[in-house]
Every structure is written in C-alpha cells, then in structure tokens.
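Dear colleagues,

As part of the handover before I leave the project, I'm documenting each prediction I ran so the next person doesn't have to rerun anything. This entry is a single chain, and its sequence is reproduced below.
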Amino acid sequence: MRINAFVAQATGIGRRKADKLIQSGRVSIGNKIAVNGDKVNQSDQVFIDGKTVNLKLNYTTIALNKPTGYVVSRNGQGAKTIYELLPRNYHHLKPIGRLDKDSSGLLILTDNGQLAYRLSHPSNNKLKIYSITLNKRLLDRHLRQIKIGVKLNDGLSYLGINELSPDRKKMVINLSEGRNRQIRRTFAHLGYNVIALHRIAFGEYQLNDLGSGKYKVLNVPLEEK
C-alpha cells in the first residue's frame, strides 16, 4: 500500500491532506522520513510526528436521506444540521460531498478516508443522479444547449438529462462533476429556477426506499476499505 493511502486510512484525512503531511516531512516509515511513492508493508511501523499510527480495521459508513432545511455542517449558525438527525456515536463521520440547504436526498458519511477519496476525487468520475423540478417548462433550445455544455464562470457545465416529464418541468439529471451548486447555476444561467433537487444515487450507492430523515449503515466491501 502506498504511504499516502496508509496515512489517509489510518487518520481519516483525505488523500490530498495526507500528501501534504508527507511532503512536510512529518511522516516516517521506521527510521526513514517518508516520501510520496513509498510503499508500506504489514511489518512496517509508521509514525506521524513521532507517534505510531495504525490502520483502522473497522470503519463506519452510512447513507442518510437528507431532508430540505438541513445544512451539511457541524455548525449550522442557527440552521438545523444533518447531525441532529443522527445518534451521537455517528457524529464523528464526515460527509462525502455536499447537498445545499434547499436540496434533499442521498448523502454518504464515513470515517473511511480511502472510500471518501474514491467517491469524491474528480479523476474517478463517480456518477451522481438527481431528480429535479423546474419552475417552468424546459424549452427545446435550452435542452440542446445543456447537452453541448453551458458556459459558467468556472467553465463549461455538462448535464445528462433523462426521463423528461410530459410538462417538461421534471427530469432526471446525471452528473459526473461535483462543482458547487452546478445544477442550480446551470439552469439559472438559462433563466430557470430549480425548485426541487433530490439526489437518488452516488456512485454505486442508491437511495432506494430510505425515508426522509432516516439513515442506514452500509456494508462496504473489504477491498473498498
């Protein structure tokens, strides 16, 4: 296992933060200062700031059906937070990605750094699927424009549109990127308001029949840990 993956799993931090920790010279394998690219064997001892770190063998990953009105944060600054929906023994779990306060649906929380990296890193192109409702009928010219890309201030936005309703207000959106409020900003650029946005799938995980405000523990295969 590469040292950055080991550090990420052992500490629960992301892969990028693990890289920075290694680059700062704070990680060692035995008596040797680690560098990115080093590999760790089962017999190796790994230290961070001189303290031994070990791989965590048991992780917890849950799926939450986030209702609207809740923020994905520990400090809601007056707003309700998702942690109010969870028992205290799950309050250490970190969300993978975000859903804004006005959005609902599938949110994955975990203490598994490698799983978080695999689902969230842009290079992995994990598909996210949303059911959305617009404030008015989607015109043909805007549907064509969305398919070829809508220019936003942070680059072109590509959305896959499926299952368009007869009134052309409801649809299913496929998205492999993860830019901030990308779906809402894309439609707003074309003159629409997204009045409901509900995530129904993230990578291989699906919301299915999980009730609003409810959670369930996920069984993550060992190779994903």
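The longest strand covers residues 194-202. The domain at 3-53 is CATH 3.10.290.10 (Structural Genomics Hypothetical 15.5 Kd Protein In mrcA-pckA Intergenic Region; Chain A).

All the best with the project,
I.
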